Amino acid sequence: MNPSDPESPETSKTDQPNKTGNESVAQRRAERERIRLSKVFTPSLRVCFQITLGLFVVLSANSIYLGGVTFLEWMHQQVYQNYFYLLMFAAHLALGFLFLIPFLIFGIGHMVMGKDRPNRRAVRVGYALFYVALAMLISGVALSRIGGLEIKNPAGRSLAYWIHVITPLLAVWLYILHRLVGSKIRWKIGLQWGGALGLVVVGMIALQASDPREWNQVGSKDGEQYFDPSRARTTTGNFIPERAFVLDEYCMECHEDAYHGWFASAHHFSSFSNPAYLFSVQETRRKMIERDGNGQATRWCAGCHDPAGRDSV
Ligand code: HEC
Ligand code: HEC
Predict the structure, then answer these.
(1) Which residue has the higher pLDDT, 108 or 117?
(2) Element (H or E) spanning 195, and its range?
(3) Are 305 and 268 in contact (CB under 8 A)?
(4) Is 3 part of any domain?
(5) Ligand 1: which atom is nearest the Cα of residue 248?
(6) How far is the CA of 305 from the centre of ligand 2 (A)?
(7) Is 256 found in the same domain as 194?
(8) Domain check: are 130 and 230 in the same one?
(9) What residue numbers bound the domain in which 247 lies?
(10) What is the pTM of this model?
(11) Is 244 in the pocket of ligand 1 (CB under 6 A)?
(12) Which of 183, 213, 243 is the last residue of a domain?
């Protein structure tokens, strides 16, 4: 979007007649180009365009993230949506509605100013781009569940969803076409921004897919066999951090009555806090070491009596 770009292939019949004098040909062409372009872009339309483009870029990053999470959920048949996802979704709605205003001002203004341009291909692609973007926005509003405007029918929603997913891609392609037959594209800047945004989005999705509870998890070097001969296991086969296991005080904060009930119960005294159990498990262990050469068999007792001791680190 460079108003003084002299390399644009577009020419106009409405250009002013060449000035004579000692200006170079290139300067005259640049001047002509400036006048020509000023007719499809007033300064305020240019500001609108920049806001539209900026919002589109931010929305693209946001949408790739949202789409990425949806794709992950579909791939793994598992819920990845969390608080951050909901915030991003709210941002998508807010940015989308905000986008409507500069887009409509710019789109209609630019269309009215450019409709008689001699570069018919640019005009036609421009029209197509405008209607595709309009379809994107209408489908977005229809999906937004705003009373009166929303679609409730599931088949209708699914159609609107796919229109809303496909139209932005189409719009990007049409925009590139529009610029290819119109003013020159500064690819390098675009690619740099695209690359930076891409990295941010990939980082966000990677963080989303990772579960902090799985970080630094330790398993037994014996693997699954560690739990034998009891059939009780942790879901991952790894240990559970002790501070996540033994939370009596924490539970008491809300369940004081339950805490007191538990405190005096057999559950509280199921493990080494119970002298009878301590003695019998030690005896079992001694006998097993005599018989098998190790005390592994007592893990069977621990599967019921002492999961916190057996399954945690
Ligand atoms: C921040 C407050 C809070 C803490 C801390 C808390 N709970 Fe709860 N818990 C609740 C609430 C509220 C409910 C009721 C939820 C419902 O009915 O939907 C509940 C329900 C339960 C129930 C189901 C009770 C029933 O009758 O259905 C159990 C069991 C339970 N908690 C155990 C625990 C344990 C064990 C801990 C400690 C690891 C704990 N809670 C810590 C607030 C808490
Ligand atoms: C399948 C679960 C399970 C396994 C495995 C198990 N126990 Fe128990 N144990 C229990 C239950 C439940 C009770 C409480 C029974 C009751 O009070 O009626 C209990 C009670 C006890 C008691 C009596 C505690 C008291 O204060 O009355 C001792 C001692 C004991 N077990 C030792 C062991 C030993 C040693 C092993 C391993 C060789 C073992 N248990 C394996 C579930 C199990």
Answers:
(1) 108
(2) helix 187-209
(3) no
(4) no
(5) 37
(6) 7
(7) no
(8) no
(9) 223-310
(10) 0.54
(11) no
(12) 213
